[in-house]
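Q: C-alpha cells for this one, please.
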Amino acid sequence: MKVSLLQQNIDTGLSITSRIVQPTNSLPILGNILVLVEKGSIELQATNLELSIRYNMPAKVEVEGSCSLPARLFFDIVHSLNDDKIQLTSNKDNIILRTDGFEAEMNGLNATDFPQIPEITTKNTITLPYEVFMSSVEEILPAVSIDESRPILAGVLINITKKELLLAGTDSYRLAQNKLMIDSDKEISVIVPASTLSEVLRVASILSPEEITMQLSETEIIFEIGQAQIISQLIEGQYPDYKKIIPEKSTTQIILEKKELTRAIKIASLFSRENAHSIELVVDARELIINSKASDVGTNSSKIPAKVSGDPITMNVNAKYLLDAANSIKSDILQLLFTDKLEPCVVKPEGKYHSDYVHIIMPLRS
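A: Here is the predicted structure, written as C-alpha cells:
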C-alpha cells in the first residue's frame, strides 16, 4: 500500500471515525481503525460492534492495500502535523507515515481480522434536509433515558407512515414528540439508540451536508452524511404506548418568554437540589410564579409575566426536566399547558409553525 493525501482531509476523517473506538483487551482490533486504499480513494472504518462509521476521501493511490492502525495514536499524530501532504506506506502490517519533515512507523494489526461492517440492501430510504433533521432530533434527545438497563427507553422511536415521520423519546418521567412531513410511501417503525443519533448530530455538525439519508432494515439503520456513513444496530422490542399520556385538551394555557423562564428555573434549582429538584409552579391571572425551598438553604420565589388564559393552577415539577424542555425548544416564546395538578404539563413552542412538537413533563406529588 502506498498513498498520498492532504493532512486536512485525513484529520477530518480520523476525528469522525476515532470517536467511537473503544480499546479493549479482549478484542484489540476494536481499538484500531481500518484503512482501505483503492481506486483513487482512501476509506477509514471504525466500529464498536454496535455502531460503525465509514469515511471516504480522495487520495493519490500508487499501490492499493489495507491496514489496521491504533486509532488514538493515528489520530494524535495526524492532528499534530502542519504539513499539507501526508504519505502512507505499508510495511507488512505496519504503516510508515511521512511528511517533508517527519517520519513515524506505527505497529498495526492484520486488516483481515477487522470486523466486517454490515451492508444494507433495502428500499426503505428516506432523505431529509440536514437542518430540519438535526433540529428535530435535538428537541427529542433530552427526554430519552440514560439508563441502559431499560434499552427501549434509551432509544428514539422513528415511525414512518404515509407522508409523516414521527420521532419520540421518553424516560417515563418526560416525553418529547416531533412530527415531520415527508414525501414517502414507506411504512416502518424502528427504535434507534439515542447514542447513535448523538453521533449523527456530531458528524453532521462537522460536515454540514445539505441533506441526510436514512436506510432502514429490520435490524440496522444507515445514516449517509456527506462522505460519511454511520451504521447502527436497532433496539429490539415494542416501544411503550405513550400517546395516551399526551393530554387532548388543557384548562390553563400560558405564553411567556423562554429566557425569563429558564432564568427563574436556574435560580429555583439552587434551592431545590436537596428536595429532589422539586419546584412549585403557580399560575394566576397574570403571571407564572416559581417557588422552591430547602430546609438547609432557604426559600426562593420568582414572578414571570405571562399571557394567561383559563383557570389558576398549582403544580410541582422537576426543575431539571422543565429546564431541559425549555432549552430544547428553538423558539423564544413558549406555551405551557395544564389540565390538573396531577396531570402532565405540556411545553410547546408558541405559534402554528411549531404545532407538531410537544414536550410532556409528569408532575411531582407535593
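A few notes: The radius of gyration is 25 Å. The mean pLDDT is 93.
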